[in-house]
Amino acid sequence: MTKIPFYQVDAFTDQPFAGNPAGICLFEDHQLTDNQLQAIAAEVNLSETAFLWPSANGYHLRWFTPAVEVALCGHATLASASVLWETGRASRDSPIRFQTLSGELIAHPGTANWIELDFPAQYGTAVTLPDGLCQALGIEPVPALFMEDRYLIELATEEQVRNLKPDFRALSPYDHAIVTSRSALGSPFDFVSRFFTTRAGIDEDPVTGSAHCCLATYWADKLEKTEFLAYQASERGGILKVRLEGDRVRLTGQTVMLIEGTFRIPVN
Q1: Is 159 a catalytic residue?
Q2: Pairing of strands 176-182, 150-154
């Protein structure tokens, strides 16, 4: 029987039962198959489960939704760093380096439980939205960008973003969709967003760090600034500080640890 330390952490929030929950599994060395990792992620059934084990210069890190492995995940990286610091596996005096499918990612400890992530910026190209995608989202055709595997769509008002009620079955054939707008007048936030990712086995991701690698470059051009306070307007909601620095994006958020336990995996 293999016993794996397991934690569940709410990320991009300072309140329990908000933000985006992530499962974190820690290995002394990694001996499970990809099928076993996927099965654990399906069992946990959160938007992402992260798997970590020591590397020569930090930690290896992989992320799985209940259905697929993903190349980049912000909230589970934030949660991973918080677990490593909170359990004493890493020193709060130093950043943590993660080796991932998206290259090396670095988490820096901040003050008041804030953690800063150093992620790659993403830029898009102008596209015409497929008619079926507009119909699935319930929006009129609008200009959009495509960035690697996701559409970025700006709507006219925050109210429109918050009130979207997509047809998730009709959305499933399409790539991931980020829907965003400027925040309403008087809001403390610069912009709001929502992230739909039915193809990854999740209808709506509560708070998506990787989406803000796209949103940072988009809103830097629109608002002519490089630092933002962002709100992801899912049912759970989450807050991110976002800063664009050249070809990197600094994502800063808080976390709350809710569950600590052990996975027991039979050895064949």
Answers
A1: no
A2: parallel
CA distances 110 to 8, 27, 206, 252, Å, are 21, 26, 23, 9
Per run of 10 residues, the mean pLDDT along the chain (length 268 residues) is: 94 97 92 92 96 95 95 96 96 94 94 91 95 96 93 98 96 93 97 92 93 97 97 97 97 97 83
Element (H, E) at 232: strand 227-232
Write down how long the chain is.
Answer: 268
3-state helix vs strand vs coil in the chain, percent to 5: 20, 40, 35
**Structural domains of the chain sorted by starting position, each given as residue range(s) with its CATH number in brackets:** 2-117+253-265 (3.10.310.10), 125-246 (3.10.310.10)
Q: Return the axis-axis angle of helices 74-86 and 211-223, rounded to nearest 10°.
A: 110
What's the rounded Cα separation, in Å, for the pair 185 and 21?
30
Whether 168 and 192 have beta carbons less than 8 Å apart is answered as no
> Is the sign of the CA dihedral 248, 104, 90, 34 positive or negative?
positive
- Tell me whether strands 227-232 and 96-100 are parallel, antiparallel or unpaired: unpaired
Question: Model's pTM, two decimal places?
Answer: 0.93
Cα atoms found within 13 Å of the Cα of residue 156, Cβ hemisphere only? 4
Catalytic residue among 28, 48, 224, 260: 48
Residue pair 115/82 in contact (Cβ under 8 Å)? The answer is: yes
The b-or-e profile of 168-195 (16+ CB within 10 A means b, else e) is eeebeebbbbbbbbbbeeeeebbbbbbb
